[in-house]
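DM from R.C. (forwarded with permission)

"hey, sorry to bug you on a friday — could you get me a structure for this? deadline for the figure draft is monday and I only need the backbone to look sensible"
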Amino acid sequence: MKGLHLLKRARGSRIKKTRIGRGNGSGIGSYSGKGIKGQRARAGGRSGITARSMRQYLLRIPKVRGKGFKPQSSSYAIVTLGQLQTHFNDGEAVTLHHLRHKQLLSGMSEVKILSGGELSKKLEIQAHAFSASAKAQIEKAGGTATVIAASEKKKK
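My reply, with the result:
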């Protein structure tokens, strides 16, 4: 007949407690999983360490100024009047499409015309911005400088 004295626990239901600091043969000897020296390795040393709050932590980190700190102004692709002089013929229209076709623009969407070089050809130029001296040179040569509106920027 079976009795209560014959019952045994299920295998693996109780795990033996790991005894640390009982020599290197135990697998957890010498430093006993505490590393080498320092406050955390000593008896009663852990209580003195408190976790810093996130605000203090963030204030201590040196800030690298970058994309998030700069004003979100648009950057222009620069095209000079000297480039327009060499790449376009007299009486031609200069648009973003033509500038990309002649490889004066890489992939930037906004274009600014600056007065680098001389312009003697009559050109009809469309761009997002012009420098004052560039606009004066274009009009002096008999051409027109048209500023592209913000609504047209988004369409292209």
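R.C.: lifesaver. The chain has a mean pLDDT of 82.
me: no worries. The first strand starts at residue 77 and ends at 80.
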